[in-house]
Amino acid sequence: MIKIVKRDQPSRAIFFFTPVLAIILTLVAGGLIFFILGFKPFEALKFFFIVPIADKYGFSELLLKATPLCLIAIGLSFCFKSNNWNIGAEGQLTFGAIVSGGVALLFYEQEGFYILPTVILAGAIGGMLYASIPAILKTYFNTNEILVSLMLVYVSKLILDYLVVGPWSNPEGFNFPETRQFSDSAKLPLLFEGLRIHAGIFLALAAVVISWFVFYKTYLGFQMKVSGFSLKTAKYAGYKGKKMIILVFLISGACAGLAGVGEITGPIGQLHREISPDYGFTAIIVAFLGRLHPVGIIFASLVVAITYLGAETAQIFMQIPKYTGQVFQGMILFFLLASDYLLFFKIKFIGLKK
Amino acid sequence: MNTNLKISNVTKIYPGCVANDNISLEFISGKIYALLGENGAGKSTLVKILSGVIIPDEGKIYLNENNLKLNSPLDAKKNDIGMVFQHFNLFETLSVFENLIIDSDEQRESVREKIDAIMKKYNFSIDLDIPVLNLSAGQKQKVEIIRCLIRSPKVLIMDEPTSVLTEQETSELFLSLKKFSDEGILIIYITHKLKEVMQLCDEVAVMRRGKLVSVSEIKNENIESLANKMVGQNLKTIKKKKAKTSSDQLIKITNLNFTSEDPFETNLMDINFSVNRGECLGIAGISGNGQSELFQVLSGEIISEKNSIEFNNNYIGDLSPQERREYLMAFSPEDRLEQAAIPQMKIFENVALNNFKSSNFFNNGLINENKIKEHSKKIISDFNVNTDNVELKSQFLSGGNLQKLIIGRELITSPDLLICFNPTWGLDVGAINYIHETLIKINEQNKSIILISTDTDELLKLSDKISVIHKGKLSKIMNSEEVTSEKLGILMGGAN
User: Fold this and answer.
1) Residue B239 clears pLDDT 80, i.e. is over it
2) Of A161, B105, B201, B301, which sees the most CB atoms within 10 A?
3) What ipTM is given for this predicted complex?
């Protein structure tokens, strides 16, 4: 017989074990789905999770996809740790890309060392501006940041649509919905010849280090931790709640904006309609899979990045629809939330009584 | 026929603690039984076993020689065991009548007749058709009792029933309980209040740390003997020396108002009082009459008009709690686990919640962990917190030790004024004594206290002046020598 018993205290080992368990369960369930769809489960899983990263090029692609996920998730963890629910990183990414893309277009066919930093800075500022909207509405008008930040995602996508179709569209582009290509000075340098991995990865790594320092070594990190556990305590301690809400949203927006910069000045090199395969939403899964811990987020972003690659490989080689990738992302979150049950309860197997 | 309830060798073990250790007791109707013990002694566990909420690991329950299988609260109801919990289980927005028929499968009309008969018999007067939220605590409790009586129970268990009642409501309750007992209902009365046991009960069973310590007749006991059995040691009684009243005013509240947008909060109306140095002002009242709002206004969690609070000749009504700390105020909120401290954080992190400028806990935005730990060790030793590990998570401290840590954290800055709200709520007698001694010591050092408390005995013991808060209004301030608990009770109930 099975008995569910409440834990006296959440165990630290379980805290880091449940994400692993969630991944294992996702693999099992994924195999099952493939089987039901009529594919060979092991072969499908191989194409999904091993083939895509088996060579140098694949590994570079993995890092390429993991970079924005990691960057955004780090930013989001500032919000989530302090009880602020920013769901609109995708919008902040898009708006950051719009602003930095606009600046990059200003420097069309110009060269200069100052161009790239300006473009990057513009992206961060764009993301911050866009994130400040839900933050200010929350602090001064008591709106719900989940709704506001989410709805702003669609606004930003429509703005991008309008710009690339209308005023910013490439005059020589045969009415394709895209801008001109940025000049080389406005692009992030590639790290290796023939691979697409670019210098944006350093932005992500810097964000990891900085966030670790802020979380565990600074007064701001301490205040975030307290607010995350209990807003009542934060109020009692006298922390300036409004200031902090705005600050964490700005940090989060800046990270998402930088991820947007990385996309358009990296592999794409221009603005068009589809600059992000929902990195901003997927990063929410990454943040929680990584337990809002900087190092955890690195691993989580790699795991989730595989689902993007795997979906493409599986589509090419096995004609499995690429949307399976999203199914896998959904399953990871689903199983993670489910196995978090184990944080507070343990399952005891006891002999049959009577 | 007499009702006979027998608990036989009941044991319930939780991880790390034996809540009930081989308890055997026998109750016979016609007498009122007290089950006495401190918080955590195991009374509640035993009662929950009797009412089917908890299933014991071992042991049996017999009602009139029948072995009862109590696997759910429904089983207890079916076996004529009625239970009134400390916290009411009523739907606030439903009417009294709807609350009463909610678990009944009888015809509405016949239940109404039954209720009317019960109310007539015991002299209860409650309007059955108004929503429960309009009732006073005493009336709500009567609704709970009626809900039990509808099922004509053989056993009625009352769990700490007086914690929300005024003195007058308490005596009414006792009269009713005696009536029930005369009619053959077996009454088991759970409490940690010794006075009530002496007043109401015929027999008393004392529990301590999960064990049954003694069963005796009330006529062979007195308050001291019961207290010693309950705590397991001889307690010294604390007495406050009459403070030499200074006329040096420390804090003055003038025309303070607070209007809340939240319908579940109480508005404060025209609050005026002042406290001199070395004085303790007690604020009595039934919980939910504006104490929490008053505490927050005083601590700065709720900002008020600048001029409404004058502290040490500064107007501070618009300052945040952190800024008020710089003026040497300190605060100990009611809720230890959700406000005053964070159980999931370590002791030294909780100490850092009181971040005053000279502490140097945070330099240039960085955490100075060594400084905080050093400071925490001092608090732990100065205030007798029972651990030497500042890295321990606070959830492993008992309520008493956590409260000592909180009070210590607030007092280590030697503030001029400590504002505390129910500082001994839910603590054991030893810890209560320690906290009381500490508070008296503060007054002796010419520091002041505002003590907001729902415990009248505590207020009478510690305060120099007392006022009562009722529906957000303060009564006039009285010298504590002129006040009796009866008088406080009348004011707490809202009469003049």
Assistant:
1) no
2) B201
3) 0.78
Q: Which of A210, A233, A247 to mutate to test the interface with B (most CBs of B within 10 A)?
A: A233
Domain made up of B4-231: CATH architecture: 3-Layer(aba) Sandwich (3.40)
Distance of alpha carbon A98 from alpha carbon B3, whole angstroms: 81
Domain-located, residue A111:
yes
CATH 3.90.180.10 fits B249-492, yes or no: no
Q: Which residue in A9, A236, A240 is closest to B333 by CB distance?
A: A236
Q: Where would I find the H helices in B201-241?
A: 223-231
Tell me the percentage of chain B whose pLDDT exceeds 70: 96
Residue A97 lies in domain: 2-349
CA distance A12 to A291: 12
What gap in Å lies between CA B278 and CA B416, rounded to an integer?
9
Q: Is A8 on the interface with B (CB under 8 A)?
A: yes
Tell how many helices (H) and how many strands (E) occur in chain A: 14, 2
d(CA A189, CA B168): 82
- The answer to whether B323 contacts A238, with C-beta atoms less than 8 Å apart, is yes
Residue (of A174, A202, A179, A201) closest to A97 by Cα position: A179
B481 burial type by CB count under 10 A (0-12 exposed, 13-18 middle, 19+ buried): exposed
- Residue A83, sorted as left (phi over 0), alpha (psi -120 to 50) or beta, turns out to be left
In what helix (H) or strand (E) does residue B271 lie, and over which residues does it extend?
strand B268-276
The interface residues of chain A toward chain B in range 207-236, judged by CB-CB distance below 8 A, are 217-222, 225-226, 229-230, 232-233, 235-236
* pLDDT tens-place string over residues B206-215: 988 888 988 9
| DSSP label of A180 | P
Residues of A with Cβ-Cβ distance to B301 under 8 angstroms: 235-236
Establish if A153 belongs to a structural domain. yes
Question: Do you know the residue count of chain A?
Answer: 354
Is A162 part of any domain? Answer: yes
Question: Token pair for residue A307?
Answer: 């689902």
In a domain, residue A354? The reply is no
The shortest CB-CB distance from A222 to any of B16, B341, B352 is to B352
Could you state, in order of their start, the residue ranges of all structural domains in chain B?
A: 4-231, 249-492
Bridge partners for A348 per DSSP: A3
Record: contact B338-A233, CB cut-off 8 A: yes
pLDDT beyond 90 at B426? no
Name the residue among A53, A119, A70, A109 with its Cα closest to residue A264: A119
pLDDT, one tens digit per residue, over B124-174 is: 888 899 888 888 878 888 899 998 888 889 999 998 888 777 778 888 889
Closest in A229, A232, A236 to B345, CB measured: A229
Strand bridging mode B362-363 / B211-217: unpaired
* Count of domains observed in chain A: 1
Window from A127-136, B8-17, B128-137 with minimum mean pLDDT: B8-17
**pLDDT, tens only, B81-102:** 998 887 788 898 899 999 998 8
- Residues of chain B in contact with residue A229, where contact means CB-CB under 8 angstroms, are 342, 344-345
- Rounded CA-CA distance B79/B91 in Å is 25
Q: Which of B324, B339, B393 sits opposite A230 (nearest CB)?
A: B339
Residue A245 to chain B, least CA–CA distance (Å): 17
Q: How far apart are CA B179 and CA A338, in angstroms?
A: 53
